[in-house]
Design brief:
globular; three-stranded antiparallel β-sheet; two-stranded parallel sheet; 5 strands; mainly alpha
Length: 222
């Protein structure tokens, strides 16, 4: 993976970057460090992706429909509460995980695949991304965005998620559930593009379900 400092070149930005500012990173084998603005755009894009909204609506509908006596309550009111809480949790995760923490520690929030490496090496690499990431300069560094995002999200969830247990053991359990499930996100990012069409849609759906489990959202006794 080659890293290039975009400020070293006087290249006019294409019009598409005004709408999709990190489009150039998706197919290039030359990784260009993201500015803090682009990290913010990345977080906003992930949050407002229509598929992300669709999975939130679907999961909330199933949750309330399956148990009308949950902390969210029955009917449309309970459905609205569940959607609102899920959106707020997602916004918190994107703000800290894709924007604030990466900007502060100079971490690249993107996932870099190894499509041409041996299978075993790719498995180990994808699992390791929970604790290891890349800096803006391309060097390996601790994955502060992931390691800090789960504790921050768990503590904030204690303040507003209905029915959640805010005691220390439950909070710690949710944090370590997130750590335990996070490697699955890496495996999905690494291998799903090899075998699936419409990859973006499928990744969002699967990861959304995993993230809800990791946060303990809508799970009794958490």
């Amino acid at each position: 993976m080659l890293y290039v400092n975009p400020s070293s070149y006087d290249v006019p930005k294409p019009c598409t970057e005004l709408i999709y500012p990190y489009q150039r990173f998706l197919t290039s084998n030359i990784a260009i460090p993201m500015t803090w603005q682009q990290k913010g755009y990345l977080a906003l894009h992930d949050l407002t992706d229509p598929v992300n909204f669709g999975t939130i609506l679907g999961i909330s509908a199933i949750t309330v429909g399956a148990d009308s006596h949950s902390a969210y309550g029955p009917g449309l009111k309970g459905f609205g509460k569940s959607v609102g809480v899920s959106l707020l949790q997602d916004a918190t995760a994107q703000f800290f995980g894709a924007f604030a923490i990466p900007v502060i520690v100079h971490q690249d929030p993107r996932y870099f695949r190894m499509p041409h490496a041996p299978f075993g090496k790719r498995v180990v690499y994808s699992i390791s991304r929970t604790v290891v990431s890349r800096s803006d300069s391309g060097k390996s560094m601790p994955n502060y965005a992931t390691l800090l995002n789960y504790p921050i999200g768990a503590e904030l969830a204690n303040l507003y998620v209905p029915g959640i247990h805010p005691d220390a053991p439950s909070t710690v359990a949710r944090i370590f559930t997130g750590y335990a499930l996070d490697p699955v996100n890496g495996l999905i990012n690494e291998f799903l593009p090899d075998v699936a069409s419409h990859v973006h849609v499928r990744i969002i759906v699967v990861q959304r379900i995993l993230n809800n489990v990791a946060r303990g959202n809508n799970v009794p006794g958490t």
